[in-house]
Amino acid sequence: MSTAFSIFVIAGTILSMVGFFLLLHLNRKITGSGETTGHDWDGIQEFDNPLPVWWYWWFVLTLVFGAVYLVYYPGLGNFMGLGNWTQFSQLEESQKIADEKYGPIYAQYRDKSLDELGADPNALNMGRRIFASNCTVCHGARGEGSYGFPNLTDNEWTWGREDADIETTILHGRSASMAPWEQVIGEEGVSQVTEYVLKIAGREVDEAMAGKGKNQFDMFCVACHGPEGKGQKLFGAPDLTNEIWLYGNSRARIADVIGKGRNGIMPAFGERLGEDKVHILAGYIKSLSSE
Ligand code: HEC
Ligand code: HEC
């Protein structure tokens, strides 16, 4: 907030609080006239009586509360309040308390393998909760994934299926990079290599086109997807020989990925969750695909 705007907010707030008080106080009557105001509706008459005493003091009390609040907490423009309170200090404080309370509970699973965690109902429950609050936005409520976000319940692990691979993925994140090929091999080349990709995935295809596509594949694609198209976890290059597709299974969708490229990003969670929670989470994730 700029200083001028801050002063505007501070002056506006204080003046209106003082204004409310004066408005109420100067109009306050101790005794009423005992007469009606002349308003009468359906037998109900309005008398010219003073406000109840409790109402008046209650209002004054809310003004005092407001003033004390604004002195202690941030609220008046750029003035941070005498209590030094921020959302961050509050979050840090409650995270510290939570870590002290729950840290040892998570830590006791540190030395178990992911398969052992997958057989432990308590660990699975914890993993499920951590998953629900951190991962479902992208991977779906049950880890089923959606367009661009991998299904975690199937048996394809683009970034590796070893315990260490899964934990590394969650701790440090992953960044996939599939270059756009249209400029390199042209639209026709894209159609041909798409045909070949569909062939190795097991579809019925135009063999002549797929044959030409194989040449393109051997030249441009094997470096990452491997000579048989089985993928490589080092690059996060998916296995192309099955019917598991991250970006859709139609010929048009697959040609679009090859022509335009894709850059899937899995964010890192190490800092937010810490190693122990990630370990428990990884056990839960691994259990999803063997269910
Ligand atoms: C530099 C390494 C690299 C090269 C070379 C490469 N790819 Fe990829 N490819 C990837 C990566 C990484 C992904 C995953 C992208 C993502 O997850 O966002 C991918 C994804 C794909 C997909 C989508 C798979 C799915 O599940 O939806 C197809 C199809 C594909 N590549 C085909 C090809 C073809 C055909 C070529 C050669 C013309 C090629 N790739 C060359 C790394 C590469
Ligand atoms: C902002 C969206 C987003 C969130 C949130 C997210 N992920 Fe991911 N995740 C992705 C994307 C995108 C990929 C695929 C990256 C690529 O293209 O290769 C991925 C990949 C993965 C993989 C690798 C799958 C494989 O085949 O190797 C695992 C495991 C995973 N995520 C687990 C998690 C867990 C556990 C959480 C919660 C802590 C999480 N993700 C939260 C977007 C997300």
Structural key phrases:
291 residues; mainly alpha; Cytochrome Bc1 Complex, Chain D, domain 2; 3 domains; two-stranded antiparallel ribbon; 12 helices; 57% helix; binds heme C
Question: Would you kindly provide a written description of the structure presented here, covering whatever features stand out?
Answer:
This protein has 291 residues and is mainly α. The protein folds into 3 domains: 3-72, no CATH class; 89-176 and 267-290, Orthogonal Bundle (Cytochrome Bc1 Complex, Chain D, domain 2), CATH 1.10.760; 182-263, Orthogonal Bundle (Cytochrome Bc1 Complex, Chain D, domain 2). The protein contains 12 helices and 4 strands. It has helices at 3-26, 53-72, 87-107, 114-118, 121-134, 136-139, 163-172, 182-200, 207-220, 222-225, 251-260, 270-290; strands at residues 36-41, 44-47, 174-175, 265-266. A hairpin with a 2-residue loop joins strand 1 and strand 2. The two termini are 53 Å apart. It binds heme C (2 copies). One heme C is lined by residues 176-179, 181, 193, 197, 216-217, 220-221, 223-225, 235-238, 240, 245-247, 254, 257-258, 262-264.
What Rg is obtained from the alpha carbons, in whole angstroms?
33 Å
Overall structural domain count: 3
CATH structural fold name of the largest domain: Cytochrome Bc1 Complex, Chain D, domain 2
- State the order of secondary-structure elements, H for helix, E for strand: HEEHHHHHHEHHHHEH
Q: Which strand order do you get reading across the main beta sheet? A: 1-2
CATH H level, superfamily name of the largest domain: Cytochrome c-like domain
The CATH level-2 architecture of the largest domain is identified as: Orthogonal Bundle
Low confidence ranges = none
Q: How large a portion of the residues is in β-strands, by DSSP E?
A: under 5%
> What class, by secondary structure content?
mainly alpha
- Output the number of helix runs: 12
For the secondary structure, the number of strands is: 4
**How far from one another are the termini?**
53 Å
- Give the overall shape: elongated
Let me know the average pLDDT: 93
The residue fraction in helices comes out at 55-70%
**Could you name the CATH class of the largest domain?**
Mainly Alpha
The bound ligands are:
heme C
The largest β sheet comes out as:
2 strands, antiparallel
